[in-house]
Amino acid sequence: MSEDDGAPRGDAGTGGVHAHTSGSGARETRDERPEFRSYYGRPVLKPPVWKWEVPAYLFTGGLSAGSALLAAGADLTGRPALRRAGRLGGFGALLASTGLLIADLGRPERFHHMLRVAKPSSPMSVGTWILVAYGPGSGLAAAAEMLPASLRASLPGRLLSRAARPAGLSAAAFAPPLAAYTAVLLSQSAVPAWHDARRHLPFLFTGSAAAAAAGLGMLTVPPAEAGPARRLGAIGAAAEVVTARLVEHRPGLVPRAYTTGRAGRLRRASECLTLAGALATVSVARRSRPAAAAAGLALLAGSALQRFGTFEAGVASTKDPAYVVVPQRARLDAADAGREAP
């Protein structure tokens, strides 16, 4: 993932893009949406070149972070089955996330090269170091869960078992920034849909991560021990749905990218699945294992579709010059009005 993706190709001002109405010489009316096109039909912004690995990376990273938090809580409250599911699920999602990131970078050594520097002003650099700080605790806690019973009484087994709780708590400490940093990474790009939603995306991603982790817990743990997962699922689903609606109902043109086209379809499906999963979570999931599993699958699928829909909204907003020019003109008009005011 490169922070330069989505950078402007050239001037996005009125000189670089033309607005056309339906009639020659016709004046633009309030109800008409002008058609914008750039010179030679080229987009004002360079569309992101990322493929499916990136939204999948966004999902698995959030799933890992939420699972680490859930596992730490289960460990402290004496729920071994939920603790095991959270630790193993979190580490498995971390491995998948790392693999997807390396696949997107193209060559494994590029991930290593990012560790040569620490740049606080770069979300990508900060996120890389968060991932590095989070990984050892997650891996050590998962290793303790996979330790064969025959080795638990040995000296290495005892040492690993004793280190499991501190390791799990270490992973949980870095889990919130791990869940949110990808939202910061997207919103600090020049992609209009992502940058315009920069105040909401971190809350959307953390709510989605919580819902996904809770879904995994309900899918793999008996209902009698999955109470914390159900509560986290209800809270995460509410945060995800409410924040998604806030993203869609901001003033201006840019929110249209989230409600139309492929992005709109993915996000509507996400909302339906998340709401259905949340409803089952607070009702039948506490009494029925099949219902709990179905609710967990719905929350997982809703979280994944939310990431893919957000990604598609960003791509769509770079392909239509209106998403760049209309907000820019609105800011210029507002500045002119401020200068003209007595």
From TrEMBL:
Kindly give the Pfam families that the UniProt entry links to this protein: NrfD (PF03916)
Zinc as UniProt keyword? no
Q: What membrane topology is given?
A: Multi-pass membrane protein
**Disordered: annotated span:** 1-33
Keywords, comma-separated and alphabetical: Cell membrane, Membrane, Transmembrane, Transmembrane helix
Q: Where in the cell is it found?
A: Cell membrane
The highest taxon in the source lineage is Bacteria
Q: Which InterPro entries match?
A: Electron_transfer_protein, NrfD-like
Q: Which PANTHER family match?
A: PROTEIN NRFD
Hey, which family's this protein in?
Belongs to the NrfD family.
Protein name per the record: Polysulfide reductase
Q: Per the UniProt entry, what species is this protein from, by scientific name?
A: Streptomyces viridosporus T7A
Q: Give the source lineage, highest ranks first.
A: Bacteria, Bacillati, Actinomycetota, Actinomycetes, Kitasatosporales
